[in-house]
């Protein structure tokens, strides 16, 4: 078991295919197949359930992937620690779709100009899914919206740290023909903080029905149909063409936080914190 083999295992797990992993890594398929087989023999377990089309992680493979992510992340952290004055290496970052749409273009452009040696990647998911990926080292950090408890205190997992970055004004979009007796909400899948806020808002009325959407454009289409309302940041609404007759109602302010694993340090992460601090609207 070595660093290269663990990287191969991770990519095969992500692609669910040796062929695609080989293309991504620029290696021959037979080399990757041999490495995976040797790894399974070394561990004494089958890491994948193989069929004719895909390689799906076995339960043991799922468990081992979690450790693999942590090992590779720690190795990258150690590598960057040896060069504290020059951010380099990689930074795997996650973000809510809303923040990616309305905030990240100038942030990433500035980051790339200042730190061209950092390989920055971005994954977009709802808040709860991002938190799990940071906790399990699939991501180094993420921009999320942590929900407050009944007392107004931010709820953050104990093994994560965070800093507030942006304040968003959340708007409720109400179609011209909205039915107040049977409210519907177009929202991202469960785990989205803005969905939770929208459900809490509309559940003051009879039980709200939620229609899952995968993008803010599909949310606008749902609002245009006259069947659904939507909750989204004002900064995102400003980038979209709202359906004719749509009403906008301010409902709350929501903080966006940058989160990372407790105790995790890297020059690339510190550089991103500095860029976000300069872009913050707090």
TrEMBL record:
Belongs to the LysR transcriptional regulatory family. The lineage of its organism: Bacteria, Pseudomonadati, Pseudomonadota, Gammaproteobacteria, Enterobacterales. It comes from the Bacteria. InterPro entries: LysR_HTH_N, LysR_subst-bd, WH-like_DNA-bd_sf, WH_DNA-bd_sf. PROSITE patterns: HTH_LYSR. The keyword Ribosomal protein does not apply. This is LysR family transcriptional regulator. Keywords: DNA-binding, Transcription, Transcription regulation. Residues 1-58 form the HTH lysR-type domain. GO terms for molecular function: DNA-binding transcription factor activity; transcription cis-regulatory region binding. Gene3D superfamilies: 3.40.190.290, Winged helix-like DNA-binding domain superfamily/Winged helix DNA-binding domain. It comes from Cedecea neteri.
